[in-house]
Write a structure and sequence with these properties.
The protein has about 240 residues and is of the alpha/beta class. The chain has one domain: Rossmann fold (3-Layer(aba) Sandwich). The chain is built from ten helices and seven strands. Strands 3-2-1-4-5-7-6 form a seven-stranded mixed beta sheet, with helices on both faces. Strand 4, helix 7 and strand 5 form a beta-alpha-beta unit. Helix 2 crosses helix 3. The radius of gyration is 17 Å and the shape is globular. The model has no long low-confidence stretch (mean pLDDT about 95). The structure holds S-adenosylmethionine (SAM).
Length: about 240
């Protein structure tokens, strides 16, 4: 896990031998499960360290936990960015939401294997879970990577954030354009753009950005809409076709 350890140092993080061992096990399992099921397109050990682990940890350059914050990762897939954040910051109270059963099985396997406490993986769609009282407007931080364009993603994520909480969307080179397109959705759902930050991920040539959205007002009760609707009709302000 040399690339990970060195890259993390550039983020100001010193990973302990125990944390590096957790990442090594996670990487081994991801590679093993990938041989059987298609969990992620990234399969090489070096690539996993950079594109999955370090990219996930890049949030810690702009956000650090205070106390024991509640965090939800929406569309977690094989666990990114939620699980790397949890390994480095064990005090997080982490919920992972994922719509694909096989991926949830993998997430539960990793949580047990690494002995992560206060971490659960739920097999649900964000649109359904975001309407349920134990989850709605409860979280200090909502994270999501590679799930949807921002107007749609805003509807999956903002309902989970408590008023005063934060949504962090991991984005590529189109981040600024997506922010513009999401202006209406953010306003409707109770969000306000706080920062669009370019992050340098060691070893990654691609431009990476974090879109940080503050929850400034409760999300109106009609959102999120039924599963599939945010994708079909994202909140853009344009009249429905
Ligand atoms: N966040 C992970 C990452 O960055 O590696 C996974 C990215 S993957 C491209 C997108 C994931 O989001 C898929 O596993 C998909 O099942 C999940 N997903 C998409 N829409 C969702 C929804 N509405 N609710 C829950 N999960 C969703």
């Amino acid at each position: 896990m040399k690339l990970l350890a060195e890259g993390a140092r550039r983020f100001g993080l010193t990973l302990t031998p125990a944390q590096l061992e957790q990442f090594r096990k996670y990487c081994d399992e991801l590679m093993e499960w990938n041989r059987r099921f298609n969990l992620t397109a990234i399969e090489e050990r070096d690539q996993i360290q950079v594109k999955h682990f370090l990219d996930s940890l890049s949030l810690l350059t702009v956000w650090r936990p205070e106390g024991q914050p509640s965090v939800i990762d929406v569309g977690a897939g094989a666990g990114f960015p939620g699980l790397p954040l949890k390994i480095v910051c064990p005090q997080l109270r982490l919920t992972l939401v994922e719509a694909t059963a096989k991926k949830v099985e993998f997430l539960r396997h990793i949580i047990a294997l690494l002995g992560l406490s206060d971490a659960i993986a739920l097999h649900e769609r964000a649109e359904t879970l975001g309407r349920r009282p134990p989850y709605r407007e409860q979280y200090d931080l909502v994270v999501a990577r590679a799930v949807a364009a921002l107007p749609e993603l805003a509807e999956y994520t903002l309902p989970f954030a408590r008023v005063g909480g934060l949504v962090a969307a991991y984005k590529g080179p189109a981040a600024a354009q997506e922010v513009q397109e999401a202006e209406f959705a953010l306003a409707v759902l109770g969000g306000r753009l706080e920062r669009l930050v370019r992050v340098e991920v060691p070893g990654l040539a691609e431009e990476r950005y974090l879109v940080l959205v503050r929850k400034v007002a409760p999300t109106p009760a009609q959102y999120p809409r039924r599963p599939g609707v945010p994708r079909k009709r994202p909140l853009t302000g344009a009249p429905a076709q």
